[in-house]
């Protein structure tokens, strides 16, 4: 704990925590750009492959379904192998299904490629794991939320920039049938390039890499055999499942909106593909500051009122998200619809940040399992929203129903409470980290 960073020196690459901070959000940005690069292209792909509404829904579900399993696995893998090795491997392997989507020839091959791309979404768990082991309790919420938010902006960037890449390919002479394929090659090449930087510039924790530390006889949380023991411990903790639901309500909705927003604006408000992409992209770009704001508020409130206030803040944010989502679903004016989307999007991203501001405090010895299960909850929410849309057959009705369900799920945040002993132990860890930092500074 004494080696963990007690502040965020934003413009520094000198220390291991700050290098990890910057490399994690950059890697996460690249992964999310690749994960959602297909979304703004779907109206064009839908026409070229002759896809039905049901087939589009299946593709959207596939894009997030694989992430559920991979997130559950990748958290314990971080405990066992360290986030540096796991992130590097994910970046390299994840490039192949992105290329597969670019080479697909019809519904089946594109569906399988989107299923494979879903594994890239597990990058979030590694990002949160890496910053959690690098930063002390007084700033870990802000570090987690900021790195996740800036990385998450890759989804919004994909919504806004991929149509511009498409336009550039068309201007260079590519046909409609091939231009979108060339556009997908860009994130596919960016991923292995990012892997090189991550491997060379990061380490697993402030003291070094897990393999070397274990070779020296230094104990690593999660156990020498890796994360399966921590995974079982996480499964037995009721707080994990409460946050599983809340993350399904915020991140699940976020992913769902990323996948359907461009198509919704084109079909419902009759916008052009470029304009719809910019409108949908504004939702994702909120992550640049909104996630960080949620984590920062959680840290600030906890410093004054203790650990339990983090749960109360999360309740308020998810309730606000649900009300805003219901408003968005009933707007008939495109201008007010964008305003409503930005309002509920602000609450959505802040709630995501506030959720992972809580994660490091659930069980420090089962961090990988906790982060993985809660992260998977977000994708369960996205898949559930996809099936809800298939069942209702109407996007607008789906959004309204989600608004009600999200508001109800906010109650799960209030159920997350900690024992007196748990809070005393966390207060002691926080005070110790701050006192050591003050001695070093003086």
UniProtKB/TrEMBL annotation:
Coiled-coil positions: none
Main localization of the protein described in the UniProt heading: membrane
This protein's membrane topology, according to the annotation, is: Multi-pass membrane protein
Which GO BP annotation is one of this protein's? nitrate assimilation
UniProt keyword Membrane, yes or no: yes
The alphabetized UniProt keywords are:
Membrane, Nitrate assimilation, Transmembrane, Transmembrane helix
Q: Which PROSITE patterns match?
A: MFS
Residues annotated as transmembrane: 21-45, 57-74, 86-105, 111-129, 150-173, 179-199, 240-266, 278-297, 309-328, 334-359, 366-389, 395-416
Q: Which residues form the Major facilitator superfamily (MFS) profile domain?
A: 20-421
Q: Name one GO molecular function term.
A: nitrate transmembrane transporter activity
- InterPro entries from the UniProt entry: MFS, MFS_dom, MFS_trans_sf, NO3_transporter
What compartments host this protein?
A: Membrane
What do the Gene Ontology cellular component annotations say? membrane
The reply to whether Oxidoreductase figures as a keyword in the UniProt entry is no
Q: In which family does this protein belong, per the annotation?
A: Belongs to the major facilitator superfamily. Nitrate/nitrite porter (TC 2.A.1.8) family.
- Full protein name: Major facilitator transporter
Question: From what organism does this protein derive?
Answer: Caballeronia sordidicola (Burkholderia sordidicola)
Its ancestry begins with: Bacteria, Pseudomonadati, Pseudomonadota, Betaproteobacteria, Burkholderiales
